[in-house]
Design a protein that fits this description.
- The strands form four sheets. Strands 1, 2, 3, 6, 11, 12, 13, 14 and 15 form a nine-stranded mixed beta sheet that branches. This protein has a two-stranded antiparallel sheet with strand order 4-5.
- The two termini are 27 Å apart.
- The chain has two domains: 10-158 and 314-390, 3-Layer(aba) Sandwich (D-Maltodextrin-Binding Protein, domain 2), CATH 3.40.190.10; 159-312 and 392-428, Periplasmic binding protein-like II (D-Maltodextrin-Binding Protein, domain 2), CATH 3.40.190.
- The chain has helices at residues 3-6, 10-15, 18-33, 56-74, 87-100, 114-118, 138-141, 166-171, 181-191, 212-222, 238-252, 270-273, 285-292, 328-338, 341-351, 364-367, 370-377, 395-406, 412-432; strands spanning 45-51, 78-84, 106-110, 145-146, 149-150, 152-165, 193-194, 200-202, 228-229, 232-233, 278-282, 300-303, 312-321, 354-355, 382-383.
- The longest helix is centred in the last third of the chain and has 21 residues, at 412-432.
- By secondary structure, the protein is α+β, with helices and mostly antiparallel strands.
- The protein is built from 19 helices and 15 strands.
- A hairpin with a 2-residue loop joins strand 4 (145-146) and strand 5.
- The chain is globular.
- 49% of the residues are buried.
């Protein structure tokens, strides 16, 4: 019997999410978190930066030897210590800082994370002149706001959309990618190949090489659906059910792909090695393919899942300032520096991400990487996760729901209705915790 069937209390449901620990920490130490020592004046003091990007030795060298010295040269009274982490541990790191009362001064976090922390007064409003925001589309800035105020700036972005292999499509007689969500399914069925023993040798549409939650959300947005509306679940309406059923049918009815054919942690990309004709993929597939099968790079063609309802999933990394920082002027300056064009571009290039600023679309990095360029060109159609303060406690629940339906354990309507009940409880409990 799963957690939903056992009828767990609202409090238990919320506390199962890591974000709840952060909320509890805020309740315990809110007074300490609201007393920065300076709110103006010249930037000075020692800052701690928490970041999930610039990973590994190469990333550290790029940031600390090439980029950060430019900041400290401009602000010689400021010094910076960097805490490198991964997204798997980022929320834990933030929560630990809240619990101890000494969070990082500047925090880089994910799209969808502003609402949980800004609603609990963890973040400082950014003092950014309007002219500094003209390089972003409003769709990109929307996840940076809470209550009409700006709490974060985009640094690098992750987009997800359709990617086709031109050569494999041509072999099957298709001279272009699919032009609608229905045609995408038809193509996927036609392009799937199995051996004489029934074993899958090529999937027509790989939906397993990215996170299942984000894959479903990419499809949901292409169907014209929403995760939430006016702070309440919307994913279980008729559009959301149709989107999740469409994904499940690919595996259970159409047999386009088998369970376990690929996964987000796979070291090989089916699209690169020819085991997939198309995929719902990430813009860094270009970087991955260049390392695995560079000879097929010219065959990768991005496309919108449904041009009639144009959308791309737009996630990414944002930079924020802790409300507890004792050096607000310095922290605000460092946040602005990290969001600057140079840092955004080099940070994106290291990981195959999309730089956040439209002014970077003419740079060689963007120009020479068609999937990155497609992501940047279509940010105006970007749709994001989150939107509610309880978001961090629901991400894993959405993933589990998608997996339950795509493996046939539950029907789409039943599973999404149960998820909506969980979401309503988490939303209500977050508001009273």
């Amino acid at each position: 019997m799963d957690a939903r069937s056992r009828g767990l209390t609202r409090r238990t449901l919320l506390m199962s999410g890591a974000a709840a620990a952060g909320a509890a920490a805020l309740s315990a130490c809110g007074a300490r978190l609201a007393s920065p020592s300076d709110t103006g004046g010249p930037p000075e003091g020692h800052l701690n930066l928490l970041t999930p990007i610039f990973p590994g030795a190469d990333g550290k060298a790029l940031f600390e030897r090439q980029l950060l010295p430019q900041f400290t040269a401009r602000y010689p009274a400021v010094s910076v210590s960097v805490d490198y982490t991964t997204y798997n541990y980022l929320n834990q790191k933030i929560t630990t800082g809240l619990t101890t009362g000494i969070p990082a001064d500047v925090i880089m976090l994910g799209v969808g994370w502003v609402e949980p922390f800004a609603s609990r007064q963890v973040l400082s409003e950014l003092t950014v002149p309007p002219s500094a925001l003209t390089g972003y589309s409003e769709r990109v800035l929307a996840p940076c706001r809470w209550g009409g105020k700006l709490f974060a700036l985009p640094v690098v972005l992750d987009t997800r959309f359709g990617i086709a292999r031109r050569d494999i499509l041509a072999q099957a007689g298709f001279d272009r990618p699919p032009a609608s969500i229905d045609e995408l399914r038809d193509y996927a069925i036609a392009l799937t190949q199995r051996g004489s023993n029934g074993a899958l040798t090529r999937t027509g549409l790989d939906v397993q090489s990215i996170d299942p939650r984000q894959m479903f959300e990419t499809v949901l947005f292409a169907f014209g659906g929403d995760l939430f509306r006016a702070g309440r679940p919307a994913f279980n309406d008729a559009t959301g059910v149709a989107a999740l059923q469409w994904v499940a049918d690919l595996q259970l009815k159409d047999r386009v792909i088998d369970a376990g054919f690929s996964n987000p942690n796979s070291t090989t990309l089916p699209l690169a090695d020819g085991r997939a004709a198309m995929s719902i993929g990430h813009n860094n597939a270009w970087i991955t393919t260049s390392k695995q099968r560079p000879e097929v790079l010219g065959q990768l063609q991005p496309f919108l899942l449904d041009p009639a309802k144009p959308s791309v999933f737009a996630g990414g990394t944002l930079v924020t300032v802790s409300a507890a920082s004792r050096h607000q002027s310095a922290a605000q300056a460092l946040a602005a520096f990290i969001a600057s064009p140079q840092v955004s571009l080099l940070g994106a290039a290291q990981r195959g991400n999309v730089p956040a600023l439209t002014e970077l679309e003419t740079t060689p990095y963007v120009r020479d990487h068609p999937l990155v360029r497609f992501g940047l060109d279509n940010l105006k159609y970007g749709r994001s996760e989150g939107g509610i303060p309880a978001w961090l406690s629901l991400r894993e629940e959405i993933l589990n729901t998608v997996q339950s339906v795509t493996t046939g354990r539950q029907g789409a309507q039943q599973a999404l209705d149960q998820l909506a009940t969980v979401a309503d409880a988490a939303i209500a409990d977050f508001g009273t915790s």
